[in-house]
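Predict structure. Chain length: 275.
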Amino acid sequence: LAGSTDDWKKTIPALGENFHVLAFDLPGFGKSDKGSQHYSPTRYARLAQYLADHYLQHKPYHVVGHSMGGAIALRYAAQRPLRLQRLILVDAAGILHPQVITKFQAGSMVERASGVQQARGFIERLSGKILEQSEKLPVSPFDIVDNALGRDVVLQGEPEKIAALELAGEDFSRAIAAVTAPTLILWGDYDLVAPLRTGNVLAARMQHARLEIIYDSGHEPMLDQPQFLNTSLKKHLLATTQELADAYAQKTPRTLPFTSERKGSCSGTSGKIFE
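Prediction complete.
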C-alpha cells in the first residue's frame, strides 16, 4: 500500500548478483495504471501468475513479497504453482482478523502521536469495543468495495483505500495451510503497521517456514536495514535443500507436552502472549 518498486532499489542490485530479478508495480500503484477497480490479493495473485508465465516461461523462480505484497505472495504460493521454488514474506500485512489489525494500528497511531507506550492498551480496548458494535450494522464495510458505486462514492475511487479494504476482507486461513514451498518470514522488531504476532502465526502454521526478526527496523526493513535484509534473502535463496531442512529442524516442535492446566486470563492488559 502506497509502495512501489522504488522501495526495492537497495535490494534489486544485491539479488541481481545471483538472479534475474523481475520487479513490478501493482496496478493502482507506482507507475502502473490507476482506477476504481477490484484491487484484491486474489486478483493480484492472478497477475503474478500471468507475469511468471509470460516473463519467466518454463524456468524455476522464487517469490519475495513485502507488506500487502507479502499477503499477495502468500495467496499466490497457496495455489502451488509448479515452478515456484521458495517463498519469502517480509512484514506481511492483512493476514490476521480485521479487528486484530485495526486495534493494533489504532494503538500504533496513538503511541506514535503521544510517545506513551502505556496509552496503547487503552486505545486498543476502546477500538475493540467500537468494532464490536460496528459488526451489528446492516451493511458491512467490505460490501462497499464489491460494487462500483461504493468504490467511487465512499472510497473516491482511490486505489489505496480500495486495496486496503480488499486486503482486510480477505480470508487467508486456508492459504496458510496450503503453502508447501520452503518459506522464510522476515519481520522488523518495531513494526507498527503489521504486528509481529502475524509472523509468529505464519511460522507456526505453515509447513516449512521459519521466522527471522530484523532488529532496529520498522515496517520497511529494505529501507531500515537493507544490508541485513539482503543477506537474509540471499542466504535463503542460495541455500541447499539440506541446509534448509536443517534450519527447519531447529524450529521448536509444534506439539509440546503441556506443563500447565492450559488455562489463562487476559483482562485489561495488552501484549500478553499465550503459547
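Summary: The CA atoms of residues 78 and 174 lie 8 Å apart.
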